[in-house]
Write a structure and sequence with these properties.
The complex is a heterodimer of chains A (about 160) and B (about 350). Chain A has about 160 residues and is α+β, with helices and mostly antiparallel strands. Helices cover about 30% and strands about 15% of the residues of chain A. The N and C termini of chain A lie far apart (about 45 Å). Chain B has helices at about 10-20, 35-40, 75-80, 85-90, 90-95, 100-105, 110-115, 165-170, 275-280, 285-295, 310-325, and strands at about 5-10, 25-30, 45-50, 60, 70, 175-180, 185-190, 210-220, 225-230, 245-250, 255-265. In chain B, the strands form three sheets. Chain B has a five-stranded antiparallel sheet, covered by helices on one side. The longest helix of chain B is centred in the C-terminal third of the chain and has 17 residues, at about 310-325. Classes of the chains: A alpha+beta (about 160), B alpha+beta (about 350). The interface of A and B includes residues 51, 121 and 133 of A.
Chain lengths: ~160, ~350
């Protein structure tokens, strides 16, 4: 940061991350993604493109999946956020995490936290009934390893078992 | 990327006042376009004015004229999935769901959708000249890479296209954009909201400098029986349109009582040609008649090399989409062509 920073005021921001209250000061331009990774030290949420094109930074915000890279942290004060670190309960994986392992739904794994957060929110939204609709509603999450078919297989299995609350 | 200040406003009067008093002020709501433009060093807000908490602007309600009022701050997702929109304006719902990704639709607002900037490669590259971003610097797209660019309504200064899907449906539905500014309120018919580039490509629309969109009115006619939105692009999903078509029609027996056809991805604003719609009135809903209307819509079309294919593509998309409107159930997720 340059000396210019001194003219800009940090804003006190409070949110609930994975059930824990966080109170921090952020400068206006800090993205929610950087806030989570650099300030909350929750590096499970990944920075892929940082421009809203890849979906790697998807988090669940007040029950809805959003892109943390295109959100300002200070605008999310008072909100509840779930990141990949908050998906499992202790060592008990979420059914979608188990399904990702069973279906070999990743290679490199960089897109996986975003895929899982996006997938859980997609299932909870309840707008997809067919495989084609699931694919359409997951199109905001890119997988450059090409595990897409396995990801959709994992999602379909969890969807059919209705195992995603 | 520049640093900026941040203030939050609670009502539209304060929002207008802050925008008027902050010379480099810009509104932020969903932020999905503004933050991206700022990260690419294409826009440099001095103060970001947070309007996301503005009272009364995030609702969707029936109005007294039998239509619907879409709050400017309602998200694209909440609008597309709203029961009244799904039931009476399925064309709008389909168009919104063909745009962006589920994550972006959860953040992006209706007002922001109308005000999003072009995705022209040169506009998005801060090191390129661009008359829209830096007036007078030139338009490299005209003789450069122009696969996604305009075939209608362009000028010798700009051949960018307006990227929204939602707005193509709003054009077909003849929505009205309600705005408020220092001099009071006004209602802008959708066809007069966006503009062609002409001599001033830096202006995307006819909103005055200190005005704010409060809501969008949908007239009663929603074409809920016969409608279709078709979007053709380089990927099946999550890509901007090369050509898109919104059709709403009313049938009287096998004949067309009335029809609206709006195009996306072809011009600096959603594109309609009233003459093509008048031509179809009273005629049979056949491929032949739709082809003749498509020829009227494309009469003035011109390509710039890489985008020449769009002229034929648009003609075929118009015909296909009008036929799909006869059987809306044939539509597939993401506004893909019916099987």
């Amino acid at each position: 940061m340059t000396n210019d920073t001194i003219h800009f005021k940090p804003h006190s921001t409070q949110f609930i991350v994975n059930g824990k209250e966080v109170v921090l000061q952020f400068l206006p331009w800090v993205s929610l993604l950087d806030a989570l990774r650099d300030h909350c030290k929750l590096t499970g949420t990944k920075k892929g493109c940082d421009h809203g094109q890849c979906g790697a930074c998807t988090i669940i915000f007040d029950g809805k999946r959003i892109l943390s890279c295109l959100s300002l942290a200070i605008m999310k004060t008072g909100c509840s956020i779930t990141t990949i670190e908050g998906i499992a309960i202790g060592d008990d994986l979420h059914p979608l995490q188990t399904a990702f392992i069973a279906h070999d739904a990743f290679q490199r794994g960089y897109c996986t936290p975003g895929q899982i957060c996006s997938g859980i929110a997609m299932l909870q939204e309840g707008k997809a009934s067919t495989r084609e609709e699931v694919k359409e509603l997951m199109s905001g999450n890119l997988c450059r390893c090409g595990a897409n078919n396995n990801i959709i297989d994992a999602l379909m299995e969890v969807k059919e078992k209705q195992d995603y609350e | 990327m520049n640093n900026f200040n941040y203030i939050q406003v609670a009502n539209d009067t304060d929002a207008i006042e802050e925008l008027t008093s902050n010379k480099e002020g810009q509104f932020i709501a969903g932020g999905t376009n503004l933050i991206d433009l700022w990260k690419y060093n294409l826009t440099h807000p001095g103060t970001v004015i947070d309007i996301s908490g503005l009272k009364g602007c995030n609702t969707i309600n029936e109005d007294e004229n039998g239509g619907l009022l879409l709050g400017a701050l309602a998200t694209n997702a909440d609008t597309a999935y709203h029961p009244l929109v799904e039931k009476y304006y399925p064309l709008l719902s389909k168009a919104i769901l063909a745009g962006a990704s589920a994550q972006i639709r959860n953040s992006a607002t209706n007002g922001g959708n109308l005000l999003q900037r072009t995705r022209c490669y040169y506009f998005y590259d801060a090191s390129s000249p661009c008359n829209k971003r830096n007036p007078g610097s030139g338009c490299p797209a005209i003789e450069g890479q122009n696969r996604m660019h305009a075939i209608l309504g362009f000028s010798d200064r700009c051949i960018a296209v307006f990227p929204s899907d939602m707005c193509v449906a709003l054009a077909a539905l003849e929505a009205v954009v309600n705005v408020k500014g220092p001099n009071g309120k006004r209602a802008i018919p959708f066809a007069e909201f966006h503009r062609l580039p002409g001599e001033r490509p830096e202006l995307d629309n006819n909103l005055d400098a200190h005005e704010i969109i409060t809501n969008i009115s949908l007239p009663e006619e929603g074409f809920e029986e016969n409608y279709s939105y078709l979007k053709l692009r380089d990927k099946n999903s999550y890509a901007f349109a090369l050509v898109s078509v919104a059709t709403g029609l009313k049938l009287n027996g096998g004949n067309i009582d009335s029809i609206r056809i709006a195009l996306g991805g072809v011009a600096h604003m959603p594109w309609r040609v009233p003459e093509a719609e008048t031509y179809l009135r009273g005629k049979e809903a056949t491929e032949e008649n739709f082809s003749a209307a498509a020829a009227i819509l494309m009469r003035d079309a011109k390509g710039f090399g890489h985008n020449d294919f769009k002229i034929e593509l648009a003609k075929r998309a118009i015909v296909r989409n009008c036929l799909m409107a006869l059987d809306p159930k044939s539509q597939r997720p993401g506004a893909q062509p019916s099987l």
